[in-house]
TrEMBL record:
Protein name per UniProt: Transposase
Lineage: Bacteria, Pseudomonadati, Pseudomonadota, Gammaproteobacteria, Enterobacterales
Keyword match Coiled coil: yes
Chain segments annotated as coiled-coil in the UniProt record: 76-103
Top-rank taxon, per record: Bacteria
Species assigned in the record: Serratia nevei
Keyword annotations from UniProtKB, A to Z: Coiled coil
Keyword Coiled coil: yes
């Protein structure tokens, strides 16, 4: 059975997707992330993660409409790659932020519907007593 992806693995995979250039397939992504996470994930494990699946679909659709690159100096190419990677990351984070805002609105409505006052929702988490482990 395959190991589950950790949050660090997911972030590394998303970073790889943000900087991706050229043809994108699940197999090519699995091969590319081996050096970052130390194992080759399956297509199914990547596809089952909502963040990765959404980022993959967004990147794939953007790559379909991307124009072919022209010859430019290396320093500009590096800067352009960095800008493109940051734009991709920004786009992915905006999409993820919208998803979280939608979830927050649902939670807000359900809290109101069940009569939970804002004071109860804003109570701090209880302190963890690390001394007693019985």
């Amino acid at each position: 059975m395959a190991k589950h992806l950790t949050q660090l693995d997911i972030e590394a995979i998303l970073g790889t997707l943000d900087g991706w250039q050229g043809k994108l397939t699940w197999d090519s992504l699995c091969d590319a992330v081996v050096k970052h996470i130390g194992k080759r994930p399956t297509r199914q494990s990547l596809n089952s993660n909502k963040q990765i699946k959404l980022a993959f679909q967004n990147k794939k659709s953007r790559l379909k409409g991307a124009p072919e690159d022209t010859k430019i100096p290396p320093s500009l190419a590096i800067a352009g790659q960095r800008i493109k990677r940051l734009e991709e990351e920004n786009s992915r984070l905006r999409t993820e932020n919208l998803r979280l805002l939608e979830k927050y609105i649902i939670w807000q409505y359900n809290a109101y519907r069940h009569g939970l006052p804002e004071e109860k929702l804003n109570m701090p988490l209880p302190a963890i007593d690390r001394e007693s482990s019985k």
